[in-house]
């Protein structure tokens, strides 16, 4: 098999990490396979109900699962004690690469869950091969209540279900993936040397902000998306000068700080247009645009259509 064919095969396989769920009774609702996201980072929205009963499987990729809607009682187990939890909107689970999962099943209820599959090397954080079974040092956790994971998941989920094929959308998704990785390294890596090594590697490989500073800034942006977020305020969260912060943030995420804020606001606007009857003026005000005209102009530039047209097509 030629190298090009092997690369295509690996990319195709990486898009279907969630096939274990479908084979065990779940239903695929949406996939990022046709959206042109960055290599190795994929997402799937699945519906899980009492038919989900996964037999033992080896986890080939670092996965973050975030409940979007519904509620279900879930049981799962790897090498430690059984994890039993209620999966409802915003609740997350982590399943690191290299874990042998003994079982996973839904005992009652149903839930739509966003599954995020991170690149094998965690966006260049690790120097490992695609077929490596290396334990990257993240914890196997269930029932996680983490506002930042929830917000990042909802934003990525909105980009997934909207099916937007724009450079701005793809840059936002990759930036969110990097931000999520930094947050996982900072908050959910195993204690001790493994955690320190991951955090150090993040700064050395990605450059720019270290994982702790980047996590603080991303948390700040998502918590104040409707407020006046200035470059000074973001730099203050990172404890850096404006110039140093702006350069480091772009090096870390691929977007300027204010471009990232705009992208998050537009993603939130898509959600409001899709899920509420709020007027264009109210959405513009809620997301701190100077006026509705500015909001419409920015939305059209980023998405390709006006907010009204976007709402109609949904």
TrEMBL record:
Keywords: DNA-binding, Transcription, Transcription regulation. Pfam families: HTH_18. PROSITE patterns: HTH_ARAC_FAMILY_1, HTH_ARAC_FAMILY_2. It comes from the Bacteria. GO terms for molecular function: DNA-binding transcription factor activity; sequence-specific DNA binding. SUPFAM superfamilies: Homeodomain-like (SSF46689). Residues 215-313 form the HTH araC/xylS-type domain. InterPro entries: AraC_XylS_family_regulators, Homeodomain-like_sf, HTH_AraC, HTH_AraC-typ_CS, Tscrpt_reg_AraC-type_HTH. PANTHER family: ARAC SUBFAMILY, HTH-TYPE TRANSCRIPTIONAL ACTIVATOR RHAS-RELATED. This is AraC family transcriptional regulator. The lineage of its organism: Bacteria, Pseudomonadati, Pseudomonadota, Betaproteobacteria, Burkholderiales.
């Amino acid at each position: 098999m030629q190298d090009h064919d092997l690369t295509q095969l690996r990319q195709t396989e990486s898009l279907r990490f969630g096939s274990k769920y479908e084979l065990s009774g779940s239903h695929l609702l949406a996939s990022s396979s046709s959206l042109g996201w960055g290599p190795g980072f994929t997402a799937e929205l699945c519906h899980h109900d009492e038919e989900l009963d996964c037999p033992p499987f080896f986890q080939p990729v670092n996965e973050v699962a975030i409940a979007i809607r519904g509620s279900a009682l879930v049981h799962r187990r790897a090498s430690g004690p059984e994890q039993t939890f209620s999966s409802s909107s915003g609740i997350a689970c982590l399943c690191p690469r290299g874990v042998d999962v003994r079982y996973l099943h839904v005992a009652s209820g149903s839930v739509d869950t966003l599954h995020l599959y991170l690149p094998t090397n965690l966006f260049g954080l690790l120097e490992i091969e695609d077929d490596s079974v290396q334990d990257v040092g993240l914890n196997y956790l269930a029932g996680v209540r983490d506002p930042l994971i929830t917000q990042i998941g909802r934003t990525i989920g909105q980009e997934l279900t909207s099916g937007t094929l724009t450079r701005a959308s793809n840059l936002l998704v990759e930036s969110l993936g990097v931000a999520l990785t930094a947050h996982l390294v900072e908050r959910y890596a195993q204690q001790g040397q493994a955690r320190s090594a991951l955090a150090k590697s993040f700064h050395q490989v990605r450059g720019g902000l270290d994982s702790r500073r980047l996590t603080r800034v991303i948390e700040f942006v998502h918590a104040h998306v409707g407020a006046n977020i200035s470059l000074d305020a973001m730099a203050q969260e990172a404890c850096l000068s404006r110039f140093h912060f702006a350069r480091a943030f772009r090096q870390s995420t691929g977007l300027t700080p204010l471009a990232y804020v705009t992208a998050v606001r537009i993603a939130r606007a898509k959600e409001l247009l899709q899920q509420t009857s709020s007027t264009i003026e109210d959405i513009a005000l809620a997301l701190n645009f100077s006026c509705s005209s500015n909001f419409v102009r920015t939305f059209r530039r980023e998405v390709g259509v006006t907010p009204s047209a976007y709402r109609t097509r949904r």
